[in-house]
Amino acid sequence: MSEGVYENPEPFKDDEPDAMKNTDIDGQIYSNVRAFKPSPRDGIVASEPDSSGKRPFLVAAVCLGLLCVLLLAGIIGLSVYYNRAIKDSEDKRNNLSQSCSLYKTNATAERDQLQTRYNNLTEERDQLQTRYNNLTEEKGHIQLKLFVIEQHCQEGWRYFDSSLYFLSTETKTWEKSRQDCQGRGADLVIINSREEQTFLFNLHLRAWIGLTDSVTEGIWKWVDGTPLTTGYWGKGQPDDYGQEDCVEIYYGQDDPVKTWNDENCHKYHDWICEKVV
Ligand SMILES: [Ca+2]
Ligand SMILES: [Ca+2]
Ligand SMILES: [Ca+2]
């Protein structure tokens, strides 16, 4: 190589200032190399001249890569954490919604049960109130009935099975007898049952009762207009002997339920009035 350079006909033109000239170029190059050659004391291992310039970039790239990996891992971690937090929040919201829905359903059912119970109690209260009113009214009627019975008994009336009976102490015709009863707020007695017949028989009276066929012969009707259904006629009666259209009860019989006789309405007899209380 030194020989090629030295054989060039055109001598090398040196443009450098004289001050910078170095006659010994190789010596200058080697001195520069030595000046930049790292020494073992700097901690840098000697290597090839080309790789020593790329190493910092490689370290930086590795660090940058690691940083990217860490950053990516962080992003993935945050994403997982965020998704899990959202899922937990949704689960809590769903659980709360289900809990609220269940509570609302239970509360509605309980409210309906209470409403039903309230309605039943209200109905029961109304029934009790109605019963109380009826009993109060019945009590008033009983008190009035007792008062009327007491008053009439003091005037000589008899009481039997919700009826008061007035027994005359004089005699009159059937029609006059009825007028006397009506003047007392009553009427001639209507015998509705075997028990009532027996009760009257035991009074040992011969008296008018409220039965007549004066309107139509043979068609017996009570003074309230109702037809006769069961008659307690004596033997051979009624016989309408000499036009007998009014009925008397008399005690001169052995059988207490066979004591009636049709009699002439103008004859005078005792009479029995009846007032239902
Ligand atoms: Ca009667
Ligand atoms: Ca007759
Ligand atoms: Ca007769």
UniProtKB/TrEMBL annotation:
<dbReference type="InterPro" id="IPR033989">
    <property type="entry name" value="CD209-like_CTLD"/>
</dbReference>
<feature type="coiled-coil region">
    <location>
        <begin position="104"/>
        <end position="145"/>
    </location>
</feature>
<keyword id="KW-1133">Transmembrane helix</keyword>
<dbReference type="InterPro" id="IPR018378">
    <property type="entry name" value="C-type_lectin_CS"/>
</dbReference>
<dbReference type="InterPro" id="IPR050111">
    <property type="entry name" value="C-type_lectin/snaclec_domain"/>
</dbReference>
<protein>
    <recommendedName>
        <fullName>C-type lectin domain-containing protein</fullName>
    </recommendedName>
</protein>
<keyword id="KW-0430">Lectin</keyword>
<dbReference type="InterPro" id="IPR001304">
    <property type="entry name" value="C-type_lectin-like"/>
</dbReference>
<dbReference type="Pfam" id="PF00059">
    <property type="entry name" value="Lectin_C"/>
</dbReference>
<keyword id="KW-0472">Membrane</keyword>
<keyword id="KW-0175">Coiled coil</keyword>
<feature type="domain" description="C-type lectin">
    <location>
        <begin position="160"/>
        <end position="274"/>
    </location>
</feature>
<keyword id="KW-0812">Transmembrane</keyword>
<feature type="transmembrane region" description="Helical">
    <location>
        <begin position="57"/>
        <end position="82"/>
    </location>
</feature>
<feature type="compositionally biased region" description="Basic and acidic residues">
    <location>
        <begin position="10"/>
        <end position="24"/>
    </location>
</feature>
<feature type="region of interest" description="Disordered">
    <location>
        <begin position="1"/>
        <end position="24"/>
    </location>
</feature>
<dbReference type="GO" id="GO:0030246">
    <property type="term" value="F:carbohydrate binding"/>
</dbReference>
<dbReference type="InterPro" id="IPR016186">
    <property type="entry name" value="C-type_lectin-like/link_sf"/>
</dbReference>
<dbReference type="InterPro" id="IPR016187">
    <property type="entry name" value="CTDL_fold"/>
</dbReference>
<keyword id="KW-1015">Disulfide bond</keyword>
